[in-house]
What does this fold into?
Amino acid sequence: MKRLALFWFLLIIISVAGCDKGLKEHPLPESLKKELARKADPTIHNNDVSGTITLDPELRVSLNPSAGLFIFARPEGVDAGPPLAVKRHSVFQFPFEFDIGQLNTMMEGSQFEGTMNLTVRLDQDGNRKSSPGDVEGKVQITAGQKGVQLVLNDRISGDAYNIEGTVSVSEALQKKIPANGTLFIFARSEGVKRGPPLAVKRVADLKLPYEFTLGPQDVMMPGTAFEGPMVLAARIDVDGDARAGPGDIEGFVSAQPGDRKIELLLNHLTGPAAP
It folds into this structure.
């Protein structure tokens, strides 16, 4: 019996020594070490914001099985680009108790502090990109604030993504406008210069300046997301063909879905080699 006990004792010692050796041979990655140290910081939750999220009953929203609840924080005055902090919940019911803070920041070195805007989105497809049918709510808060009331009360409609604006021709090219020209308005994702556009609109009966709307209803491939950033191009085409040719008049402008009052100025002539 004593020999058996001694055998098991030696086996345990050898196993522990082996594990210890393994840990020394495979140290924790630096990124994991930093994350563990960050979570162990006793001040990490000092600026946490917490409160309750409710869903406006008048909206009569039915939840999809894949729905997700996203909470975004952005500094005051910042309406675009990556949020300061984000938190996602896949299991929830309303009213829902939430919190968000420094641990949820997206970029290393970012500070969850000051005045911020909180946005909550009930995303029906579970993808954090906003789309028609999702429901949002917004409130301005201060870091560390408790008892925040966030109400999901704004259903996103399809036309919320429409880009609206005016197409006009520069004064220098007024005399170059063809009598029976056709106007094409294209949208391409930023950085994409060739291939089929994301969305397109054709206007045969042209009267300038022309007030336009371009949105998800104009995408070329059904199911393609109308999302930005993007570049809008407008062209008055001499022969009615969507491809650029000599004598066509073009202009470009950057835009985001939902932008209004876009000024798209046609200010140069295309040549034979234009795409």
